[in-house]
Amino acid sequence: MYSTILGHEFIIINSEEVAHTLLEQRSVAYADKPFFSIMKLYGMDFNTGSLPYGDRWRQHRKLLHVGLKKEASREYQPMQLQKVHQFLQNLIGSPTQLSTAIVMAIAYGYDVTSVEDRFVTKVEHLLELFLQGVTLGRAALLEAMPFLQYIPSWFPGGIYDRLARDCRSVAREVLDDPVQYVKEEMAGGTTRQSLVKKLLGKYTDKDDMGTSEYEETVKEVGATVFTGGTETTNSVIQVFFLAMVLHPEVQIKAQEELDKVVGDGRLPDFSDREKLPYIEAVYLETRRWRPTVPIPHPRITSTSDVYNGYYIPKGVIVLTNVWAMSHNETRFPDPTSFKPEHHLSPTGEILEGTAPHTFGFGLRQCPGKHLADQSIWIAIVSVLATLRIGKGKDSTGCEINVKPDFTSGMEVHPKPFACSIEPRSANAERLIRASNKRE
Ligand code: HEM
Question: Which residues are CB-contacts of 279 (< 8 A; sequence separation ≥ 6)?
Fold first, then answer.
């Protein structure tokens, strides 16, 4: 689909076939990102996802690959299992964010122990300032009138200056502080393994760059993992809870599969994955039903191209409509319904090729996909094994019906909904508590 909005040319890719041809087979021409000066102004241009295609982006991806490639991600499985067990324990008490705990452990070897954590609250503050200052309207205005950024804070309209200055200073702390923590731990000889430790230590590619440039890149990569890997994963887990409230029959079927395969003497782990096709289908359907990033960050063509007789000029903005692909009626009949059967053969095996493209395409596709896949799967299977998720109740004891509702924007979350979470059985509760004592 082609369109022009406010003088910019856009193409929107709604089909997987077109996305494969353009974004994967002709990947280099479609790997660039449009430059938004507001990102730099707010100090948020450190994020890999916003970098233009070029050397700096390549360096980021190379460093991310060290910690996030498939084999490296497998090494995190014991830690992910441990964090999920802590998460289960907390769900019986009060929920904390599993995804934050996992990415902080991976990026910095750091244990998040409370919702008041100093690094986590700093990132929350950064995102708050950024969202406060950067609306779509302001971004467009600034692209059209770049001089606005130079209006001082005391002058009417100088809000850009004030908010941007605060945001830049918090972004600096988000980049520096956790890396400083790793350095201090390394100096004390007590640090645990982490991506930043690996990169600051014996990783040899640092010889390609000057020391301070290299160290700045490591900081950017660490902060990208921290900021890019939490809300996305967290949102998918929230979608799973919502689907379980709405579909008790799916929950029962998944728990029957677990009882048959794993039994009630232990908690499931990664070695069970192959033997649990129905739960795999629940996981795939959770990602398909409500994609967390329905339209990823735009790309921009770096050369002109021709597709099926259509001319695509250089400099066109390219949007990938993952939502449309996940809701393609031919592939997924009745696409708005949550049905694990979308991914299963009539005899209950996982169908090839039904995994939704929620991690994007081509050179800019998500480097955290293996990690996220593991985090979400182990969270889903562990919750199903131990907890019963149901409708919440009001003060008179009546069940509260849930009408699914979602936030809008780049990353989509379910809006808060009432639900009840309780241990499936006394035995399940005992297993959760025992796992936490062991670990
Ligand atoms: C369910 C979880 C996640 C989802 C749905 C998700 C989705 C995406 C999507 C759609 C993109 C853009 C792809 C494109 O343009 O084609 C992306 C990029 C990215 N993701 Fe993820 N992501 C998730 C988790 C993570 C995690 C855990 C990390 C890091 C540990 C991560 C790091 C990144 C980075 C660095 C990029 C930018 C890549 C680039 O521009 O080269 N993501 N992600």
Answer: 254, 257, 258, 380, 381, 384
Residue 91 tokens read as: 């769900």
Q: Does residue 336 lie within any of the structural domains?
A: yes
Query: Which carries the bigger pLDDT value, residue 386 or residue 40?
Result: 386
- Domain containing residue 430: 81-97+230-293+328-439
Query: The complex's ipTM?
Result: 0.97
Q: What is the CATH number of the domain that holds 343?
A: 1.10.630.10
Burial of residue 210 (CB within 10 Å: 0-12, 13-18, 19+) is exposed
User: How much is the pLDDT for 208?
Assistant: 62
Whether 127 is covered by a domain: the verdict is: no
**pLDDT value for 68:** 94
Cα–Cα distance measured from residue 316 to residue 295, given in angstroms and rounded to the nearest whole number: 16
Query: For a pocket test of ligand 1, which of 365, 366, 377, 380 has the largest count of ligand atoms closer than 8 A to its C-beta?
Result: 366
CB-based contacts of 15: which residues, under 8 Å, 6+ apart?
Answer: 324, 325, 328
On whether the CB atoms of residues 352 and 299 are closer than 8 A, the answer is no
Q: Confirm if 300 and 250 have CB atoms less than 8 A apart.
A: no
* 222 assigned to some structural domain: no
In this prediction, residue 136 has a pLDDT band, given cuts at 50, 70 and 90, of low
Residue 44 lies in a domain: no
The secondary structure element, H or E, covering residue 383 is helix 369-386
Residue among 358, 162, 129, 338 nearest 250 (CA): 338
d(Cα 142, Cα 3) in Å, to the nearest integer? 22
Q: Which residues does a 6 A CB cutoff place in the pocket of ligand 1?
A: 48-49, 61, 64, 68, 103, 224-225, 228-229, 232-233, 236, 292-293, 296-297, 320, 358-361, 364-368, 371-372
- What is the number of structural domains in the chain? 1
Lowest mean pLDDT among 64-68, 87-91, 361-365, 434-438: 434-438
Nearest residue to 214 (alpha-carbon basis) of 179, 164, 188: 179
